[in-house]
Write a structure and sequence with these properties.
Blueprint lengths: L2 H8 L4 H12 L4 H7 L1 H4 L4 H30 L5 H9 L3 H8 L9 H7 L13 H5 L10 H17 L2 H14 L1 E5 L14 E4 L5 H12 L4 E5 L2 H12 L7 H48 L9 E5 L6 E6 L5 E7 L8 H15 L3 E5 L4 H15 L4 E5 L4 H5 L2 H6 L5 H14 L1 H5 L4 H8 L6 H21 L1
Parallel strand pairs: 4-7, 7-8
Antiparallel strand pairs: 1-2, 1-3, 4-5, 5-6
Length: 476
């Protein structure tokens, strides 16, 4: 395979663009560097296209490497044929290569291998020969009856059907097109997973966020997830390929095909499709994570205004911090403007005193627990003061992580973690980027994303976050 030519075709690019880009990547240049400083070499390809091309380049190179490994392994077994070589060369995915190599892969002890060890073989499906009569010649100390011999032969046929690359490819397509993801639960209290009780959705239509939610519920032991497919439809794929109607052994081969479908092929394809859905959903969640992070970091700052930061809460109250135009902490307090305490009038007096004392111009309200009640309270205070104060609800993402960090402890040793959060919320309104870069992205990932992403994908997501932060710092 000419990888550069394939990339040129898939991305509708000119050969010289692909050739130069691949060379720049191989020379160790990063995608941001190529996008910004090597536009003349790539034809001004944007960073997203460059990143997609680099990912596809890695995949195609892995595919070629795997092809060579499979060729070598089959050749060493002295089983390479011209047809196999053509099939390997024509394979376009790693899954297809895996299917081709499956019959030649060293296997653990199976029912088929046990039958082969006993001396059983399989023959062509003959029209006239009774399979039980043919089985008589295989009787020995280990195979006592013709029925035992036939059962062993069926085990061998089931494995042959399971290893057939064409059958697996066709059945995989059918499952993608006609299969359903089915979710059930025996739990009475399903909590956040209540919507997934007795839930079914086609594999081809299920949304990525639902895949992650279902996976999380399954991991927590609340949901049971399976791939459902009409067995008759699935069986027709295997029987159409392997059963010769009219032969004396057709029914026995059909039974072997059903055993292969139920015991070997369908469970394997179910795992493959579940993994495929998870990988797709995880990749999409990384993109959403990166997009949201970029939007969060690029919020315009509100400069030159003394700001009150309000970190909402119910039982422990709403934490208050006043910071000046430069982010320096001027004052702190705690108010109880929401249930269960609801000391609204007392809270209003505290806030009004702080506003008058420090000439406050802005309120920054965290969007976490009790945010709505705190927003209503703030609006009432602003209305009563009638002095031109405005408010904004800001994201609390990572505020608790920062407040308990070593950096926050060094910056505010005199405050507890809740008051540090209020300071952070106020500063996020004044200068979002300067405040958010203090948060350890690994701590955010562990707290918010580990249930939805495998470790590899989580690592990629954190890399995206760090890349965004570093790029923005360079721009600044």
């Amino acid at each position: 395979m000419d990888i550069n030519l394939t990339l040129s075709s898939e991305f509708s690019l000119k050969p010289w663009q692909v050739e130069n880009t691949v060379q720049l990547i191989d020379d160790g240049n990063t995608i941001p560097f190529i996008a910004r400083y090597r536009k003349e070499a790539t034809g001004s390809l944007d960073d997203q296209l460059l990143r997609d091309l680099a990912d596809r380049l890695d995949y195609l190179r892995s595919l070629e490497e795997q092809k060579e490994k499979v060729r070598t392994a089959i050749t060493e077994q002295e089983k390479m044929t011209e047809e196999l070589d053509k099939a390997i060369e024509a394979a376009k995915t790693l899954t297809e290569i895996e299917d081709i190599y499956r019959p030649f892969r060293p296997k653990r002890k199976t029912r088929a291998s046990v039958a082969k060890d006993k001396g059983l073989k399989i023959y062509e499906q003959l029209a006239e020969v009774n399979p039980y009569a043919l089985a008589e010649q295989f009787l020995n100390e280990e195979i006592a009856t013709a029925e035992d011999a036939v059962q062993g032969a069926k085990d061998i046929i089931a494995e042959v059907i399971s290893d057939d690359a064409v059958g697996r490819k066709q059945l995989r397509y059918v499952c993608r097109s006609h299969g359903n993801i089915s979710v059930s639960s025996s739990e009475e209290d399903m909590g956040v997973y209540e919507n997934y009780k007795d839930y079914t959705e086609p594999v081809s239509k299920i949304a990525n966020h639902r895949v992650l939610a279902i996976n999380r519920g399954e991991k927590e032991g609340i949901l049971k997830v399976s791939l459902d497919m009409d067995k008759i439809h699935g069986m027709s794929v295997l029987t159409g390929l392997h059963v010769k109607n009219g032969s004396a052994s057709a029914e026995l081969v059909r039974e072997a095909a059903e055993d292969a479908y139920t015991r070997l092929v369908f469970p394997s394809i179910e795992r493959e499709l579940r993994n495929e859905l998870t990988e797709r959903a995880s990749a999409d969640s990384i993109k959403v994570f990166a997009k949201n992070t970029a939007e969060l970091l690029m919020q315009p700052p509100v400069k030159g205004a003394v700001t009150i930061g309000l970190d909402p809460g119910y039982r422990t109250g709403c934490k208050v911090a006043v910071v000046d135009e430069t982010g320096k902490v001027l004052d702190t307090s705690v108010i109880y403007c929401a249930p269960p305490h609801s000391k609204v009038e007392e809270a209003k007096k505290i806030i009004k005193d702080l506003v008058k004392k420090h000439n406050v111009k802005m309120f920054a309200i965290g969007n976490g627990t009790a945010s709505h009640e705190t927003e209503v309270f703030a609006a009432e205070v602003i209305k009563e003061l009638d002095c031109g104060i405005t408010y904004m609800v800001v994201s609390e993402a990572g505020a608790s992580v920062y407040s308990a960090s070593k950096l926050a402890a060094e910056e505010f040793p005199q405050f507890d973690v809740s008051l540090r959060s209020a300071v952070s919320i106020a500063r996020r309104l004044q200068d979002p980027l300067a405040e958010l870069v203090k948060i350890d992205p690994k701590a955010i990932g562990v707290g918010q994303y580990q249930h939805d992403m495998p470790k590899k994908e989580l690592s990629n997501a954190l890399t995206v976050l760090l890349r965004i932060v570093l790029t923005l710092l360079v721009w600044i």
